[in-house]
Amino acid sequence: MVSSCEIPLVAPSPAHICPFDQACSYLEQAAKELNLERGLLELLRHPRKVITVSIPVKRDNGEVEVLAGHRVQHCDILGPYKGGTRYHPAVTLQEVSALAMLMTWKCALVGLPYGGAKGGIAIEPKFYSVGELERITRRYTTELIKDIGPSEDIPAPDMGTSAREMAWMMDTYSMNVGHAVPGVVTGKPISIGGSRGREMATGRGTMIVVREALADIGKSLAGARVVIQGFGNVGAAAAILMHQAGAKIIAVSNADGGLYSDIGLDIPALKDYAAQNDKNIVGYPNAIPISNAELLTLSCDVLVPAALENQITEKNAHQVDATIVAEAANGPVTLEANEILEARGITVLPDILANAGGVVVSYLEWVQGLSYVFWDEDRVNREMELLMVQAYRQVIQQSEQRHIPLRLAAYTLGVGRVAQALHDRGLYP
Ligand SMILES: NC(=O)c1ccc[n+]([C@@H]2O[C@H](COP(=O)([O-])OP(=O)(O)OC[C@H]3O[C@@H](n4cnc5c(N)ncnc54)[C@H](O)[C@@H]3O)[C@@H](O)[C@H]2O)c1
Fold it and tell me: So where does NAD(+) get bound (predicted)?
């Protein structure tokens, strides 16, 4: 079979692990388990639309730089496309395509009426001024104007973006169509129709599934030793919520390095430190510095990779010393590493479940916006909790009924629902 990395739709990645191939492998495993016919599998492998745009930006020094921006729309069988917008130097079309596919299965798994999409620009945001980032975001949005919209494709924040970028996207879209369209993005500020609870949502979802998984083995978050890689939108929220639930967060890290404390880090103090130091945690006084590599092999109950993909590979999977690995990031465990962890009896809570809290609250934000009724944070958290616990239980049940690991169980549920919808809608024309 031709490697999906060779298909012309998706340009080659410099990384040795092809993220799109990896996403296709999981899809193929699920298709095999579900006995899907070959034609249907081919359909599900290919994104419906791949968009690459040039983004010329005038830098503050007057020079013009041209960036490449992508948006991949994988499948809209269940509803409008939905997916984040990533600003990170490692963004490639392959990576965006893989993440768009993951979004399709994730939305279907948690029962949302959405299809999967993803967008990204290969930049290191910290090397750009706020004004430059605003011009980049506005130009990127303008280039996508015909492809996004509240019924078409609804972007959200991801690595390197936040409510600020979503506000610029919403404003740019609205100015182009001539009236305010809050529903074009989610994860926007509350002042323009954002939902309460969205900022912490992905980390909250991770906390909920970890809590459930610990309960299933007779343990609790209270007193659990937790290690978190990444202290951004997702990692910091997961750290705060698990800390509040009584867990000992013994190590956290960001791109510059990590911190360890055997008695548990004071997460609120660390969060304040990061806020005062331009998101940096290195240099925080009450902890021992460690590297990211060391962090991933610390002995703990729960390891939460919440930064980048491909962090646990066949090289370090044998050294992982956790009972549960909760994939708060997308694709932090490679295919080979996943097999090693499963063979070692380590429970891997797969990304399409463990980080689905973000898209669940994005959906709740969209629903509130469409109905012009806005809920308090308790209501948002309650609705999200119901959907997350239900998805977790369904994955466990599927795993037990079919005697398959949790990742394959989650994929069979997500892929199976999309396949059923495709079957019911029929193939156009
Ligand atoms: N933001 C969301 O709502 C959301 C939803 C679902 C999934 N995710 C996934 O979660 C992950 C993190 O996203 P985020 O929104 O928190 O991003 P972010 O940019 O807010 O934070 C990323 C964190 O990872 C750290 N990091 C970057 N490179 C690293 C490296 N090489 N080693 C260790 N740490 C490193 C950064 O310093 C930062 O602390 C991504 O995989 C993203 O796709 C995010």
Answer: 202, 233
**Burial (0-12, 13-18, 19+ Cβ within 10 Å), 424:** exposed
Residue 8 preceded by cis peptide, ω within 30: no
- The domain 47-181+405-428 is placed in CATH, from the list 3.40.50.10860, 3.40.50.1010, 3.10.560.10, 3.40.50.2000, at 3.40.50.10860
Domains 47-181+405-428 and 200-349 share a fold: yes
Q: Residue 105: what are its φ and ψ, rounded to 5°?
A: -70, -35
Count of Cβ atoms closer than 10 Å to residue 43 Cβ = 17
Q: Are 184 and 150 in contact (CB under 8 A)?
A: yes
Q: What is the C-alpha to C-alpha distance for residues 408 and 392, in angstroms, rounded to an integer? A: 13
Q: What CATH architecture applies to the domain 200-349?
A: 3-Layer(aba) Sandwich (3.40)
- Identify which of 67, 55, 54, 50 has the alpha carbon closest to the alpha carbon of residue 8: 50
Question: Which residue is closest in CA terms to ligand 1's atom 43?
Answer: 330
On whether the CB atoms of residues 359 and 370 are closer than 8 A, the answer is no
What SS3 class is residue 380?
A: helix
pTM confidence score:
0.94
ipTM topping 0.90: yes
Query: What pLDDT score was predicted for residue 16?
Result: 64
**Residue in this structure with the two tokens 């990170």, named with its chain if needed:** 88
Cα 21 from Cα 5, distance rounded (Å): 6
Q: Which atom of ligand 1 is nearest to the CA of 308?
A: 41
Backbone phi, psi, residue 192, to 5°: -120, 30
Residues taking part in catalysis: 118
- Strand-pair partners of 51: 71
Report the helix count and the strand count for the chain, using DSSP H and E. Answer: 14, 12
Place of tokens 């063979």: 343
pLDDT tens digits, one per residue of 9-30: 443 443 467 889 999 999 999 9
Q: CB within 6 Å of ligand 1 — which residues? A: 84, 157-160, 202, 229-235, 253-255, 292, 306-308, 328-330, 355, 358
Q: Hey, whose CA ends up nearest to atom 33 of ligand 1?
A: 255
Cβ atoms within 10 Å, residue 294: 15
pLDDT, tens digit, 9 for 90 and up, residues 319-356: 999 999 999 999 999 999 999 999 999 999 999 999 99
Tell how far the Cα of 290 is from the centroid of ligand 1, in angstroms: 19
CA of 231 to the centre of ligand 1 (A): 7
Expressed in angstroms and rounded, the spacing between residue 233 Cα and the centre of ligand 1 is: 7
Domain ranges of the chain: 47-181+405-428, 200-349
